[in-house]
Amino acid sequence: MPLNSPLQLSLPVHLPDDETFNSYYPAAGNDELIQKLRANAEGQGEAAIYLWGPVKSGRTHLMHAACAHANEVERRSFYIPLGIHASISTALLEGLEQLDLVCIDDVDAIAGHPVWEEAIFDLYNRVAEHKNCALVVSGSSSPADAGFLLPDLVSRMQWGLNYQLQPMADDEKLAALQRRAAMRGLQLPEDVGRFLLNRMARDLRTLFDVLDKLDKASLVHQRKLTIPFAKEMLHL
């Protein structure tokens, strides 16, 4: 089931085509996780991976990247963010073990909801039995600290590989910004990048959104990225 399948498109979810492994800049300490996710997407990795980190830490980017990579190598993938669990049914999980890769994002959003916890637990069991499906699950905290009511679900999540996303240093964030700018054909001078780091929220999602806004503005106004231009466009 590729990302553009009818079932995927029926979800109120936007799957950006620019969130790939190539556009992800890993912090020091996250390289092994990237390798494991690539292997999973190719059908050569672990049966289950649980990764956690705070909101806007890059978890969702990695989930999208894993699905995109699976599609590139002609494997069937499916992505579901459980932040929208109130608007969907647990029936959506039925049969997913028949796919090659299933990515479940924001799983801690269903902590304290018994029906959903049982459904995720059942999916873990079916994946373990089926053996040909890889399951990648993400949350904002470790399984033990996520607030799940079902102890067996916590045990299942701890059964596979567990990774905590390491935070990025400022120099790594600057490099990530410059890399994203280069991918868009935009030159981001170091002084402008450091200005954004000092004046904006420091998570990459916000910084990337700001960079995208400046990119569009530079095209409209036919101006290079400078600190005065950034101040003007961002009303700083």
Q: Can you tell me about this structure?
A:
The protein is an alpha/beta fold and 236 residues long. It is 45% helix and 11% strand. The protein has 2 domains: 21-164, Rossmann fold (3-Layer(aba) Sandwich), CATH 3.40.50.300; 171-234, Helicase, Ruva Protein, domain 3 (Orthogonal Bundle), CATH 1.10.8. The chain has 9 helices and 5 strands. It has a 5-stranded parallel β-sheet, with helices on both faces. Strand 3, helix 4 (114-130) and strand 4 form a beta-alpha-beta unit. This is DnaA inactivator Hda. Belongs to the DnaA family.
| SSE succession | HHEHEEHEHEHHHH
Average predicted local confidence, pLDDT: 89
Number of helices: 9
The fourth-level CATH homologous superfamily of the largest domain is P-loop containing nucleotide triphosphate hydrolases
Largest sheet: 5 strands, parallel
The first-level CATH class name of the largest domain: Alpha Beta
Strand order of the largest sheet: 2-3-4-1-5
Low-confidence blocks of residues: 1-6
**CATH architecture classification name of the largest domain:** 3-Layer(aba) Sandwich
Strand residues, percent: 5-15%
Structural category: alpha/beta
Give the proportion of residues in helices.
Answer: 40-55%
Distance between the termini: 45 Å
Organism: Shewanella septentrionalis
InterPro entries: Chromosome_initiator_DnaA-like (IPR020591), DnaA_dom (IPR013317), Hda (IPR017788), Hda_lid (IPR055199), P-loop_NTPase (IPR027417)
Domain Hda lid: 170-234
Family: Belongs to the DnaA family.
